[in-house]
From TrEMBL:
Full-sequence portion shown in this chain: 522 to 808 of 808
Origin: domain of life: Bacteria
Name under which the protein is recorded: EAL domain-containing protein
Keyword terms: Coiled coil, TPR repeat
Lineage, opening ranks: Bacteria, Thermotogati, Deinococcota, Deinococci, Deinococcales
Keyword Coiled coil carried by entry: yes
Length: 287
C-alpha cells in the first residue's frame, strides 16, 4: 500500500515538474516575441534629494505587457532572460529606450538623469560599453546623464571595467544596487570606480524597530554614509515608504531618496505628469 502511495506521489511530483517546465518554455518563447511585438515597456521611478525632495534622476524599471498574463514585473522574466541570451537584446533595448526618453525629458528638465539596471552578464559583455557610447551619441546626451546600476559587484572583473574608463571620465556614473545584501562585496567596493551606493530596501524596511524587531539597521546605514562621505560617493536609500524613514535617513546623511513615499514606478506619461507637478509646485510662488 505504502509503495503504491509513494509511486503516486512521484507521479504527481513529475507531472507538477513538467507543468512548470512547460510553463517556463512557453514563457521563454513568448519573451522572444516580446521585443519585436513591442510588449516591453519602461516604467520610471523618481529619485529625489533627501532635503528639498527635488527630482534629480529617474530609474528605468522594465515591465512586460504580456498578451495573456497582463503586466509582468521584472522578477518574472529577467532571471529567465539572464539564463539565455535574451538578456542582451533586452538590455540593448532598455539602453536605447531610456536614452530616447531622457533626451525628450531633458528639453524640459536639462539636468535630469536616468539610471538603468544592467545585469552582470551584460555589463561584462564585450560590446556593451561601446553601445552605451553609441546610445548617448545618437540621443545627444552627455555621459553624465546616465547611470548604470549593477549588483553582484564580485563578478565585475577589472578587465571589463577598462571598457568603461573613457565613459566614466566623461561622467558616466556607476551605482551599486541592492547594497548591503549578499550580492554586493564590500571589499570589492574599494577597487571599483563606483559613484553611488544604493542601500537595499530590506535595510530601509528594518530601520525603525518594531515589536518583533528590536534592533535597527540605523548604525549600519550610518557607517555606509560615513564610508561614502570619505570616499566621495553618494548614497541613495531605496524603498522609502514612510515619512519616519525619510526623516531618519535624512538625519543619517543619505543624499538621495527613492521609494513609494515619493512616487511608485509609473509609465513614462505618468512620470512626466509627476515631474511637471513636482517642479511646478516648487517654482510656484503662490504655493
Ligand atoms: P531594483 O533595481 O533594486 O529596483 C527597485 C525595485 O524596488 C523595483 O521593483 C521597485 O518597484 C521596487 N520599489 C521601489 N520603491 C519601493 C518601495 O518603497 N517599497 C517596495 N516594497 N518596493 C519598492 P521592480 O520594478 O519589480 O524591479 C525589480 C528588480 O528587477 C530591480 O530591482 C532590478 O534588479 C530588476 N530590473 C528592473 N528593470 C530591469 C532592467 O531593465 N534590466 C535588468 N537587468 N534588470 C531590471
Ligand atoms: Mg536598480
Ligand atoms: Mg535595488
Ligand atoms: Mg535589484
Amino acid at each position: 500500500y505504502l509503495a503504491k502511495k509513494e509511486r503516486g506521489n512521484v507521479q504527481r511530483f513529475q507531472s507538477a515538474l513538467s507543468e512548470a517546465a512547460i510553463r517556463r518554455l512557453n514563457l521563454e518563447q513568448d519573451l522572444r516575441q516580446a521585443l519585436p511585438n513591442g510588449e516591453l515597456e519602461l516604467y520610471y521611478q523618481p529619485v529625489v534629494t533627501s532635503g528639498a525632495q527635488q527630482p534629480v534622476a529617474v530609474e528605468a524599471l522594465i515591465r512586460w505587457n504580456h498578451p495573456v498574463m497582463g503586466l509582468l514585473p521584472p522578477d518574472q522574466f529577467i532571471p529567465l532572460a539572464e539564463e539565455n541570451d535574451l538578456i542582451f537584446s533586452l538590455g540593448a533595448w532598455v539602453l536605447q529606450e531610456a536614452c530616447r526618453q531622457l533626451s525628450v525629458w531633458r528639453r524640459l528638465w536639462p539636468e535630469l538623469r536616468v539610471s538603468i539596471n544592467v545585469s552582470s552578464r551584460q555589463f561584462t559583455q564585450t560590446d556593451f560599453a561601446s553601445s552605451v557610447a553609441q546610445a548617448l551619441a545618437v540621443h545627444h546626451l552627455p555621459a553624465s546623464a546616465l547611470e548604470l546600476e549593477v549588483t553582484e559587484t564580485a563578478t565585475l572583473d577589472t578587465e571589463s571595467l577598462g571598457d568603461y574608463a573613457a565613459l566614466m571620465s566623461a561622467g558616466l556614473q556607476l551605482a551599486v544596487d541592492d547594497f548591503g545584501t549578499g550580492y554586493s562585496s564590500i571589499v570589492r567596493l574599494f577597487e571599483l570606480p563606483v559613484g553611488i551606493l544604493k542601500i537595499d530596501r530590506s535595510l530601509v524596511a528594518a530601520l525603525i524597530p518594531s515589536q518583533d524587531r528590536r534592533r535597527s539597521t540605523l548604525p549600519l546605514i550610518r557607517s555606509f554614509v560615513t564610508y561614502a562621505r570619505e570616499s566621495g560617493l553618494q548614497v541613495t536609500a531605496e524603498g522609502v515608504e514612510t515619512p519616519e524613514q525619510l526623516e531618519v535617513l535624512k538625519q543619517a546623511g543619505c543624499d538621495l531618496i527613492q521609494g513609494f513615499l515619493i512616487a511608485r514606478p509609473a509609465s513614462a506619461a505618468q512620470t512626466e505628469r509627476w515631474l511637471r507637478q513636482t517642479t511646478e509646485r516648487e517654482y510656484d510662488p503662490q504655493a
